[in-house]
Amino acid sequence: MKTVYRGKKISSIIGILPETVSYFDDEVDNYTFPPKQTMKLKKVMGFESHRLSKEDSFSSDFCIFGLKHLLEKGVIKKEEIGAVIVVTLSPDYFLPQISNIVQGELELDESVLCLDIAQGCCGFLIGLMQSFMLLDQMNDKKVVLMNVDVLSKKVSHRDRNDFPLSGDGASVAIIENDPSASDIHFIMYMDGKRRNALRIPAGGFRMPNSAETGTLHDVGDGNLRALDHMHMDGSAVFSFVQEEAPPCIEETLEFAGLNKEDIDYYLFHQPNKFMLQKLREKLGVPKEKMPDDLVVKYGNPSGVSIPMVIADHLSDSLTDKTYKCCLSAFGSGLAWGTMTMDLGDLDYCSLVESDL
């Protein structure tokens, strides 16, 4: 997919963190590996700390918390909302959808369109794409785009490959029409042939959860996980990102008529620090233009990465400054995409901690 969106903008962003902080140093004894060997990975992979949702906190709770925060701050009014889009891989239920839960709990008007989208790492870009298209039908109404995942609940705590990087969180972005907004250029690719590089085998209709799928097994590399758990084939995903992301980014910049030097910030999905460092080196991008520490502080929050990076690194300046940004994501699907846009002059931008 290759397209240009005109007259659209992001007007506010909030990132929502869980209250619980878990530190890698405290988790070392969870694994079957010698602690000294495990600690060697800390610096290379960015294993520092991550945010984990509480046992009784779920995706809809984060979405309701975030939108309620924006309503209470006066950033948006209920009557301005034309649609609620939720992008997640961790729904509360098969039915009802999270967007409907949000609409009902916050008593939004019955005319508000509710839509859930199942996407992971590229979820923010996919959500923006859908929001921009809906705005053509919204007149003066705004789209509330929510990205949320609590995937730590689907990762084995005995899996050293996956658990240290798992992070929960959410974001809420307000998307609206603005005839004076600069053009937004977007390119997206997907390859389902490589889909199994990131997967949760059990839990759907093909393989329902059972006592058998919930049993931990040594998968052959010293890590313990069950079929109910999420797993990323690290080497396959690393090769995929290094192979596919740079050409997509360069193609999008050329499509937008931009050079690498024209970009103020490269705001990317955060799988792990090592992968981002290698990607930055391959692109030849200065370190100060490409934040890579979100995953070190909070873990990898799937499709929430990009808005979380924005709220974490730029919240102090985005309300009175505008930057030319390159947004890029890559992961589950497999999918990869890049978007260039002017980001700034926001009504509100903040990273907040919840009690969830």
Major sheet description: 6 strands, mixed
Helix count, per DSSP?
A: 10
Annotated CATH topology: Peroxisomal Thiolase, Chain A, domain 1
For CATH, the homologous superfamily is named as Thiolase/Chalcone synthase
Explain briefly what this protein structure is.
The chain has 356 residues and is an alpha/beta fold.
Question: Would you mind describing this structure in some detail?
Answer:
The protein is α/β, with parallel strands linked by helices. It contains ten helices and 17 strands. It has a single domain (1-356), classed as Thiolase/Chalcone synthase (Peroxisomal Thiolase, Chain A, domain 1, 3-Layer(aba) Sandwich). The chain has helices at 24-27, 35-39, 41-45, 59-72, 98-105, 123-135, 234-255, 273-283, 294-298, 305-314; strands at 2-5, 8-17, 20-23, 49-52, 81-87, 113-117, 142-149, 169-177, 184-190, 198-199, 217-218, 224-225, 231-232, 265-268, 322-331, 335-344, 348-353. It is globular.
Salient structural properties:
356 residues; alpha/beta; Peroxisomal Thiolase, Chain A, domain 1; 6-stranded mixed sheet; 5-stranded mixed sheet; 10 helices
Secondary-structure map with pairings?
Elements (H helix, E strand, L loop, with lengths): L1 E4 L2 E10 L2 E4 H4 L7 H5 L1 H5 L3 E4 L6 H14 L8 E7 L10 H8 L7 E5 L5 H13 L6 E8 L19 E9 L6 E7 L7 E2 L17 E2 L5 E2 L5 E2 L1 H22 L9 E4 L4 H11 L10 H5 L6 H10 L7 E10 L3 E10 L3 E6 L3
Parallel strand pairs: 2-17, 5-6, 5-7, 14-15
Antiparallel strand pairs: 1-9, 2-8, 3-4, 7-8, 9-16, 10-13, 11-12, 15-16
